[in-house]
Specification:
Elements (H helix, E strand, L loop, with lengths): L1 E10 L2 E11 L4 E5 L6 H8 L7 E6 L2 E4 L4 H14 E4 L11 H11 L5 H14 L15 H13 L5 E5 L7 H16 L3 E5 L3 H7 L2 E6 L2 E6 L2 H6 L4 H10 L1
Parallel strand pairs: 3-8, 3-9, 6-7, 7-8
Antiparallel strand pairs: 1-2, 1-4, 4-5, 9-10
The protein binds adenosine-5'-diphosphate and magnesium ion.
Length: 247
């Protein structure tokens, strides 16, 4: 589903990602963890073309972006990747003047060109999936942060993505609201969605992810396909330090 080859990223002179390579098969749930500033968000943003690569190559599905591609080609490829990728951020960025269901219907009408009635049926199904069917006529400001984030997930799912990227989706939430969002993500994982999740929720990472990617200083320091073993006994000193700190 995803192949990253020798990805490097600089912001001017600042090197943020160093020669990252990783392959993620379809249906895998990958938790990306690591200290603040280690490049996790930048890595995720490179995956769907929100950041331009300095060096290397990324393939998502049938689409490949390369550092030295011309603008026109790059634009086409990024468009292709975005069609197949849903992204959920820490901040939910819902349209404040649209209702919950209108937020979910928007892309169905504008991008997928569905008729209003059809879009409505599909949006209702998605809101049901995230447990918010009864809120469909509310405005985002009338919802809790956790509910808004679940609407953002439903909105991302509306495009029927092959891949979902999450960047600390629960970090802005009050602790009591985190569980509902994680439950929705767990259901998605159980449905077989391919997911890359940057998270501070270590219990969630251990229990739900198939794989833990530990990043530090712009590098993948540890890549474990056995989350329980990783959290019990990481192999690198750097990861051991990190685990001690967060526990
Ligand atoms: P993480 O998500 O792991 O906390 P980030 O990917 O956000 O890390 O950031 C990695 C490094 O890149 C940090 O030093 C950050 O300051 C820097 N950085 C991120 N985005 C930008 C940007 N748009 N311009 C300049 N520096 C950036
Ligand atoms: Mg980040």
């Amino acid at each position: 589903m995803i192949t990253v080859e020798h990805l490097s990223k600089k912001f001017d002179e600042l090197e943020v990602l160093y020669d990252l390579s990783i392959t993620i098969p379809a249906h895998q749930v990958v938790a990306v963890i690591g200290p603040s500033g280690s490049g996790k968000s930048t890595f995720l943003r490179c995956l769907n073309g929100l950041e331009i690569l300095t060096e290397g190559k990324i393939t998502v599905g049938q689409h490949t972006i390369e550092a030295n591609m011309n603008k026109k080609e790059l634009k086409q490829m990024i468009y292709g990747i975005r069609q197949e990728t849903g992204m959920v951020f820490q901040q939910f960025n819902l349209y404040p003047h649209k209702t919950v269901i209108e937020n979910v219907m928007e892309s169905l009408i504008v991008v997928k060109k569905l008729k209003k009635e059809e879009a409505q049926v599909r949006a209702e199904r998605l809101l049901d999936k995230v447990g918010l069917l009864e809120k469909l006529d509310n405005y985002p400001s009338q919802l809790s942060g956790g509910q808004q984030q679940r609407v953002a997930i439903a909105r991302a799912l509306a495009m029927e993505p092959q891949l979902m990227l999450f960047d600390e989706p629960t970090s802005a939430l009050d602790p009591e609201l985190v569980g509902d969002v994680l439950r929705v993500m767990k259901n998605l994982a159980e449905d077989g969605m391919t997911m890359v999740i940057v998270t501070h929720e270590m219990n969630f990472a251990r229990d739900v992810a198939d794989r833990i990617v530990f990043m530090a200083d712009g590098r993948i320091v540890e890549d474990s396909q056995d989350p329980k073993a990783f959290f019990t006994k990481p192999t690198t000193e750097r990861a051991q330090q990190f685990i001690r700190k967060v526990n």
